[in-house]
Amino acid sequence: MDGLQAMSFKDLPARLATLAHRLLPLRCLLCTEPGAGGLDLCPACRASLPELQAACRCCALPLPAPGICGACLQRPPPLQRAHAAFLYAPPLDRLLPRYKFHGDLAAGRLLAQLMARAFAGCERPQALVPVPLHRSRLRRRGYDQALELARPLAAMLGLPLRADLLRRVRATAAQSELDAAARRRNLRAAFRAANAAMPTHVALVDDVMTTGATLHAAARALHRAGVERVDAWVCARAP
């Protein structure tokens, strides 16, 4: 009983999902074949995932060779490094919407495992900061997809999780409905950093990076609060 009382009710679904994952046989979430390598993913589907190889160091845009793209050279972004585990392309574009919009926590757990493997060799920040949802959207969706990626990612990589450092203080239109310029306008004054002692180096965690407007707005808020270096760790980069 004491253990149940100590357990936060909001963590119960994730804990039950983790327990089920340990007890049940691995099963590929893409094709239902047996999973392998500790993942709910079969070897064939694992090999088909669109891993991001050469990319811009500042915005993760795919490049012929690693470096910095022309746009980031002309106008340096507020992110020092941007790392994406994958391109947003088939079959990953089936897994991410299932997690983000349909509450498939098993898909989220798999994506976090894949991100941990992809980012294990990255320079370590002092903390991971999930890009937060506004409370109105959180009520509608029922969970914060960036937080639920960042929580297991932090645990697997042994990094502090600091979801308290950043808040989304203004409800905004869905970014997917806007062009690049409108996305930037939509995010003005959307984030506010906490009035607290800040780490010098953090990594923002999010599911997808498209134009970078959301991550840039969040990074600027953290910079204004005293963070010296902000990186981005995302599951997928839209090409």
Q: In words, what does this structure look like?
A:
The protein folds into 2 domains: 1-48, no CATH class; 52-237, Rossmann fold, CATH 3.40.50. The protein has a 4-stranded parallel β-sheet with strand order 1-6-5-2, with helices on both faces. Strands 3-4 form a two-stranded antiparallel sheet. Helix 5 (92-102) crosses helix 6 and helix 6 packs across helix 8. The protein starts with a helix and ends with a strand. The longest helix has 15 residues, at 105-119. Strand 5 (201-209), helix 10 (213-224) and strand 6 form a beta-alpha-beta unit. The chain contains 10 helices and 6 strands, in the order ααααβααβααβαββαβ. The chain is an alpha/beta fold.
How is the secondary structure organized here?
Elements: H1 2-6, H2 12-23, H3 43-48, H4 70-74, E1 81-87, H5 92-102, H6 105-119, E2 127-130, H7 135-141, H8 145-157, E3 166-168, H9 180-186, E4 191-193, E5 201-209, H10 213-224, E6 229-237
Parallel strand pairs: 1-6, 2-5, 5-6
Antiparallel strand pairs: 3-4
Helix pairs in contact: 5-6, 6-8
